[in-house]
Structure formats: structure tokens, C-alpha cells
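Q: Hi! First time doing this. I have a protein sequence and I read that you can turn it into a structure. Is that right? Here it is:
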Amino acid sequence: MNAVYKSAFWKFTKKQSRPFQLAIEDEIERICKYPEIGGEKSGDLAGFRVHKFAFRKQEYLIAYKTAGGSAIVYMIDTHENFYRNLKRYVKEVD
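A: Yes, that's right. Below is the predicted 3D structure, encoded as C-alpha cells:
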């Protein structure tokens, strides 16, 4: 499975330190290897999966969908306001 990245993901990732970028790459590889790793969402975010991981004692969430052998990575951020921001981003993109 390969990964396809949306602009919100790229904008967040390019601003981060190199060690954190490498940690994000590792988590994306895990998602591609085990697509069911993230918890399924319901309601407004039905179809999304969210994978949680920690980096330097801070929890981060990655929102993605799987389709046709690809993991479409929408967003990564801390838990604070994550779901609200994801809903807004999905409305803008769709």
C-alpha cells in the first residue's frame, strides 16, 4: 500500500524538526503496512481512521482513509481541536 498526502499534512510536516519528520515517516509506514491500525470514526467523519502516536511525551493524531490500495493521509496534529479542524478541512476540500 502506498501513501497519498493532502496539503494540510504537508503544511504541518514541513514546519517540524527533522527527528519529528522521521518519526512521522515511520508512522506512515506503519499505516501503509497495517491500514486497520487507526480507529474508525463515525458521524461526520465516517470513513476516516485516526492513528495516535506519541513523540516526546506529546500525543499526535493522523487522519487517513484507505481506498484502492492507497492510504490517503489528510491531516496530522495534536489532539487539541483536531477533529474540529479535520471537519473544516474536509468541507473545504470536498
